[in-house]
Write a structure and sequence with these properties.
Layout lengths: L21 E3 L5 E3 H7 L12 E2 L5 H6 L18
Antiparallel strand pairs: 1-2, 1-3
Amino acid sequence: MLQMRPGCECCNRDLPPDSADARICSFECTFCSDCASQRLAGTCPNCGGELLPRPSRPAAKLEKYPASTTRVFKPEGCAAAS
C-alpha cells in the first residue's frame, strides 16, 4: 500500500493525499509536479526511476488506511537530473 507522503522532498510543498500535483517513483519518493519536471526532468534523484503521477486513494479508504504523516525533506539531493 502506498505511503502517500505529505510533502515534496525538494521544496517541502504540501502534497495532501488528493493532490494531483504529487509525483512518485517506484520507491515512493515523493515530489511536486514543478520540482519533478523543472528541477529533476522526470527522474528521481534518489534511485534514478521515473517520476509519475501518484494515484489517489478514495476518501473512504483514507479513513481506514490514512496517508503517511512522515515528511521527507532532502533539498541537498534535488540537483537537476543529468
